Each structure stands twice: as C-alpha cells, then as structure tokens.
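Service request form, structural biology core

Requester: graduate student, group of Dr. S.
Request type: structure prediction, single chain
Budget code: on file
Notes: please return the result as structure tokens.

Sequence provided:
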Amino acid sequence: MERFVAQIAPTEEAIVVLSADERGECSPYTAFIQSLHLLSEGDWTHQDLDAAFAAWLQAPDKLGYTDEAVVEILGAGFGQYCARRLNMRWIRLIDRHGTDLGLQGVECDAGVEHTGVDRCARPGH
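Core staff response, request fulfilled:
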C-alpha cells in the first residue's frame, strides 16, 4: 500500500484574545433564536441552536436571513456554546492567509479551531 504524507511548511501567525467588547459585537445567535420564538430568556443550549435551524428551514420567508447568514450565526452560536461549556476563548488568528476568528482552549493549547466566521451576520446579509 502506497502512502502519501502532505508536508506543509510552518507559517508565522499571531493569536490575539478577543476583548469582551469584541466578543459582544458578534452575538446575533440569541436574537436569531428569539426571532423564532424558541427562547424567551436564559441560557440557551446546542439543542436550541438545532431547533432554531429546523424552524428557520420551515419558515416561508426564512425571516429575512440568507443561508450564509444562518451558517455564520449558528457557527458563532455553537462557538459561544463551546466557549462557555468547554473552557475555551475566542481569538483572532492572523497569518499570511488573512484574519479569522477561532476558539482556543484556556488551559491547554491543543490547537485553534477556525470557525470561518469573519463578520457579524444580520438579516439580509
């Protein structure tokens, strides 16, 4: 059996922990869940995100949210859920390919999970 091993040269990168203000700028998931009348207040869960997605799929006008916006909103929401439940923090990763948001473990840095979310998603965007 022949094996192929990809080798990628390391690239320089900077990791910046997001401030509370920066984290607050991209929090559209609670409003999205509430717009579907699935959450009045309190701490939502990943099941709430699943229910919101299912309800959005069934909404005739999709509440003005594009497919891309919903992917970003739910991705950011799941990231926030992971940050709360798994002792992770939001970071900005900057490298030669650009800038992206991601999550990083607070106690151990086993790597960065890139979310692909690079802006706040709003209805119609």
